[in-house]
């Protein structure tokens, strides 16, 4: 994506005036100039990792089953060899809280590094911009093309771009739906138009259009107007947070920024290091001018650093006029990396990770749920005993089949009737009607606390409390 910046563009008069001193909010369409540099290379690597992870994960199988599969009809989430059930929802909530806390910690430390390097909106927007540049050419060619009247060549270019954008959007949607609908069935079903699940068809269409719209058309507007994180991230910033900043003292030295001949020493000439070439604005995917100071629109992508470093190199000035730094460093004050807020966040994060790991490790892969028959308090059998009815659900949450035995304790002499022995496959739920019969004179009270116990073939057991209701005889 590198686009060499010609030296003659180092004067404001030779630069297209679209952004000269004007922020993107006054312009409808951004023509982002591509740039290469250290941070763009880092982002390319992170985006590749993200893409490979996203598109390949649904195709990985463990033990003959899709490794990451959110099986909504069966209410089971299979994640890398573990199966989570609706009962584990609290773990999922906990995981989301950990992710939010992780984001707070990283934002306090390194600003909007998430937005610039790993956010899916950034990732897909960069892919779409790359496709656009390959088909329509660099920034100047794209601007020229848009001004031209429609012609066969323009139509072919535009149609090809939108077609490829739609193909990428469809591939994104297929991969997304593949996390919920077995992807090895989804693709043949899609090709033969035989997807039975209407929700799968809806989400395929929705995600195709959402990806195409967000990354192709809305782009930075999602960050500027739709992303809530952009609005509240500044609350987490402090004066030691790493941010992309313009060194105003250096750039505006003496009589300030401005064009000059190559080779002029800005310190001797008492002028700023900024040659006012506007490259930092032209490469900015949100169209802002970082020289105006920290703005919520800045996604911390560091493209302006790459662009400015390239200019500084050409001018034989030191790099870093725009750089990752923090307010304290810019003011020449002491920088505190390990400040109390950050240390507090980090300790809380480690503690939460530990608790989460322990909770997952300690999870019992067996669940028993017993419901009393609410329609009837009790009934009398022909032999004079009192009977209560129950419905027991046994969930085998393990990754293999097991045999189970159900027993009851808490009521001397009572008889448990029904299918008390059952075999369940991995992930299977056994639904068994049960009844307890007791002789009336064994009942000390009208309500007796009892416990149902289900025991697995390897000795693992869980229990659930319930009640036996009958006439009290004593
Ligand atoms: S900050 Fe750097 S890239 Fe931006 S206008 Fe000044 S010299 Fe050019
Ligand atoms: S100002 Fe710089 S870091 Fe911020 S969004 Fe624009 S190019 Fe990226």
UniProtKB/TrEMBL annotation:
Q: What keywords sit in the KW lines? A: 4Fe-4S, Electron transport, Iron, Iron-sulfur, Membrane, Metal-binding, Transmembrane, Transmembrane helix, Transport
The signal peptide annotation in the UniProt record is: none
Q: Which GO terms describe its molecular function?
A: 4 iron, 4 sulfur cluster binding; metal ion binding
Taking every annotated instance into account, which residue ranges of this chain make up the domain 4Fe-4S ferredoxin-type? 265-293
Q: Does the keyword 4Fe-4S apply?
A: yes
Residues passing through the membrane, by range: 47-69, 89-110, 163-181, 201-218, 342-361
Domain of life of the native organism:
Bacteria
Query: Cell wall biogenesis/degradation among the record's keywords?
Result: no
Q: Quote the cellular component terms of the Gene Ontology held in the record.
A: plasma membrane
Q: InterPro entries per the record?
A: 4Fe4S_Fe-S-bd, 4Fe4S_Fe_S_CS, Cyt_c_oxidase_cbb3_FixG, Electron_Trans/Redox, FixG_C, Helical_ferredxn, Ig-like_fold
PANTHER family attached here?
A: FERREDOXIN-TYPE PROTEIN NAPH
Protein name as it appears in the record: Polyferredoxin
What is the scientific name of the source organism?
Bermanella marisrubri
Q: In the record, what lineage is assigned to the organism producing the protein?
A: Bacteria, Pseudomonadati, Pseudomonadota, Gammaproteobacteria, Oceanospirillales
